[in-house]
Amino acid sequence: MIADRESAFLAEKLLADTIIKQNVDRDQLTIHADNGSSMASKPVAFLLADLGVTKTHSRPHVSNDNPFSEAHFKTLKYRPDFPDRFGSIEDARAFCQRFFGWYNQIHRHCGIAYYPPAHVHYGQHETIHAARADVLAAAYVRNPQRFVRKHPQPPVLPAAAWINKPADNEDSENT
Question: How many domains does the chain have?
C-alpha cells in the first residue's frame, strides 16, 4: 500500500484485506513490525488476534529490522528505473505497481532456489523444478564430461526461511 500518511486505520485495512485475499488460515501467519504507532495500535492488535495472527515487534531502540523487508527495499531502490524523486503519490503508486509485478512474477530469488515468489506461493515451482531437471539431464547426456563431480540437479527449494535460525543442538530443541 502506498499512502500519503501512516495510520492505524490504514494498517488495519491493509492487513485485513491481504489476509482475506490470500486466504490465510488461523495460526498460520506471524507478522513482524516495528514499534510504530500504526502497527502497535489496539485496532491492529485486536484484528490480528481475531484472525489468529501472531504479532512480533522489534525491541525499543534496537536496530533489528526484518532483513527480508530490508532486502526488498534495497531491490526496489537499486532498480535502474527507480527515480530520484516521485512527482506525486500517483507516480509512486504506478512505479510500485510495476515493480511489485516484476518482483513477484519475474525476479528470481537465490534464497528460494531461483524461483519468482509467486511461483512458490501458488505451488507452481514443482512443475518448474521438474522442467529444470529435464533440461539438466539432457545437458548431461549431451556433454557428460562437463559435469565432473555428479549429475546436475536444479537447486532445491528450502523447507523454511529463517531470520535467526535456532542452533541445531539438543538444547535448542528443548527451549
Answer: 1
pTM: predicted TM-score of the whole model, two decimal places? 0.73
Q: Does a structural domain hold residue 167?
A: no
CA 52 to the chain's CA centroid: 20
Nearest alpha carbon to residue 154 among 119, 173, 175, 127: 127
Q: Which of 81, 102, 101 is nearest to 91 (CA)?
A: 81
pLDDT digits (tens, 9 = 90+) for 16-54: 898 889 888 888 888 877 667 777 778 888 888 888 888
- Residue 81 and residue 103 in contact, taking contact as beta carbons nearer than 8 Å: no
- 32 by DSSP, 3-state: which? strand
Q: What is the DSSP letter of 148?
A: S
> If you search the block for the grid coordinates 489468529, which residue do you land on?
52
Distance CA 175, CA 167 (A): 11
* CATH label of the domain that carries residue 18: 3.30.420.10
